[in-house]
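Support request, priority: normal
Reporter: lab tech (M.K.)
Component: structure prediction queue

Hi team, I submitted a job for ABC transporter ATP-binding protein from Turicimonas muris yesterday, and the status page still shows it as pending. I've pasted the exact input below so you can check whether something in the sequence is tripping the parser. The sequence length should be 268 residues. Please let me know if I need to resubmit or if it's stuck on your end.
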Amino acid sequence: MLEIVNLRKTFFHGTPNEKKALQGVNLRLEEGDFVTVIGSNGSGKSTLMNCIAGVFPPDEGQIKINDVDVTKMSEFVRARYIGRVFQDPMKGTAGDMQVEENLAMASRRGQPLSLRWSADASRKETFTQLLKELDLGLENRLTTRIGTLSGGQRQAITLLMATLVKPQILLLDEHTAALDPKTAEKVLMLTKKRVEEGKLTTLMITHNMRDALRFGNRLIMMHEGRVVVDVEGEKKKNLTVQSLLQMFERASGSEFSDPEALLTTPAK
Ligand SMILES: Nc1ncnc2c1ncn2[C@@H]1O[C@H](COP(=O)(O)OP(=O)(O)OP(=O)(O)O)[C@@H](O)[C@H]1O
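Reply from support: The job had stalled in the queue. We restarted it manually and it finished. Here are the results:
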C-alpha cells in the first residue's frame, strides 16, 4: 500500500526559474493496484516517482509505504521497499558484471551487503528458467557480461531484478520508451506477467495512451503537479482515447499537451 498526502515540490524556489513540480498530490494505492500514469509534459510524473524513491525530499507532505513513513528516509534505505526500472536500459544493471551476478545481487535485496554475488546450482536453475520465460535468447547466457547485451535484453533483466524479491512498490518510469516497438511489446507483456503473478503494487509512467488504457486496473492523469483524473475498474476498461481526452480537458480546463502521446496513439 502506498499513501501520498499533500505532496509538494518546487525547484529553484524564489528565483526567476522557479518550477512548481508538485502542487499537492494526494494518492492512495491499495495492495496489488497496477496504476498507469499519463500527463502533459512537465506535469510532475517523474518528480512524483523521484519523491517516492527518495531521490530528493518533498518540500511538504507525507509518503507512506505499507504504513511506514518513508518521507525522510534516504534513497539507499528506502531501496529495500522499492523496485524501479528507468527509461535508460543502462541504468538498472551493472554492465561489467555477468547476468547471473546481477540476478544474484538482486535476489539479496534487503539483506546485509556482501561481496559474494555468486549463485549456487539451484539458484542458477531458477535464473535459467526465468530467463527462458523472457524469450529473448538469454537462458544460456548466464555468464555473459550484461554490458554486451542489447537494450531490450538489459531492460527485461532489469525488470526481473526489480521484481525478483517482491518489492512493496514497483516504479516504472517510461521503461519501454527507448526500445523498438517489438521489444517494447515483449517487455510490456513481461511487466504485466510479473505484476499480476506477484500482485505487485505498481506505478507505470507512459507516454503511450494506448498502453495506459490496456494495462493496469487504474489510470491517473497529471497536470501542473496534481492528479486531475483517476479512473479504475470497469470504468477504466470502457475508456477510449477520446473519452480520456475529454475527461482530462474537463478536469484541467486545458487541452492535453503531450505531442508524443498524441502521435503514438490512434484516435479511437
Ligand atoms: N531535478 C530538477 N531540477 C529542476 N527542475 C526540475 C527537476 N526535475 C524536474 N524539474 C521540473 O519540474 C517540472 C516537472 O518535471 P517532471 O520531469 O516531473 O515532469 P514529467 O511529467 O515527468 O514530464 P515529461 O513527461 O516531459 O517527462 C518541470 O518543469 C521540470 O522542468
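The chain has one domain: 2-264. The mean pLDDT is 91. Let us know if anything else looks off. Ticket resolved.
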